[in-house]
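Exercise: predict the structure of this protein bound to nicotinamide-adenine-dinucleotide.
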Amino acid sequence: MTNSILVLGADQVNSALDGKETQIIETVKNTYLFHNEGQTALPQSIFLRFPNNDRNRIIGLPAYIGGDYDIAGMKWISSFPGNIERNIERASAAIFLNEMDTGRVMSVLEGSIISAKRTAASAALAAQYLHSNKEEDSIGLIGCGRINKEILLFVKSVFKNLKTVYLYDLSDDRMDNFISWHDGCDYTFEKCQSIDEIFSKTKLISFATTAGVPYIEEISTLTPDHTVLGISLRDLAPSIIEKAHNIVDDFDHVCRERTSIHLTYQKLNTEDFVAGNIADVVNKKVAPRADGKASVYSPFGLGILDLALANYVYKTSVEKNLGTVVENFLP
Ligand SMILES: NC(=O)c1ccc[n+]([C@@H]2O[C@H](COP(=O)([O-])OP(=O)(O)OC[C@H]3O[C@@H](n4cnc5c(N)ncnc54)[C@H](O)[C@@H]3O)[C@@H](O)[C@H]2O)c1
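Solution:
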């Protein structure tokens, strides 16, 4: 029995995950399938909010994965959108891993990289299964921040022809920054002036904004061929969601905290507007598309995904002798 823990910072997390997009998407897919089979424990996330401040929050996502994983843990992730003006990232996170013989903490990992990568892998998985044009060569990114940057990387690993990227952000600077992050990459970027314009240019769209309240009541250029990755969860009004073919990661998780799915549920008082979850699409139990409807993916972002990736990073780091062992961390 050891009293030490292994601390893994951004460098070790990056070294375990960089360039592993295909493998991460596969891990995320298998974790969803595992969850669908009831091999996980996933209580609701805890939202810590602050008096007189509805912008900032910290979320705790506890989770357990059974089977060969047999691992428990929690991601503790803050969102302070004002950080962008300070030139630091909006989100900051730590992930705790507990082993299951004694329940003791065995590792603390930097969590924002894992969180961004599992989010992007989930978006790419949905794009792969929901989007009908398997030769898609363009994407529209609404919100030009960290998450859409990662989504572009992961979607590119699925749609190899992807080369034209349409951008839309409230901030012109953020679009310019986004383009400069990709200096040397083989993409053509085009900035759009509106949501309607970006939907008119491409059929594959990813929302990763920091909008807290849905602000889009109608999109005149939305067609039944569109696939919308609604990663930020609070962009589309119920008037759009109720007419779409909706796929979620887990309905009980995403139907909370005034997400677009939650607001639509409150409006319609039924969950019939949701076709099913992504694992059922992978298993071919739920159709990826429906006649006359755009497909919209709304993933809450499940703690089991963070746990599966953190476990992978932990194991890889132990094998390679990476990270900092803190002796006598535990009493
Ligand atoms: N569902 C999930 O699993 C999951 C996981 C991680 C993050 N997220 C969400 O993804 C979102 C983006 O995260 P990020 O780290 O990239 O944030 P970020 O702050 O780096 O970037 C967000 C960008 O959105 C822009 N924006 C805000 N409101 C807009 C609007 N109405 N129209 C167009 N652009 C707008 C901002 O100017 C900013 O550039 C957050 O809402 C976060 O909560 C979801």
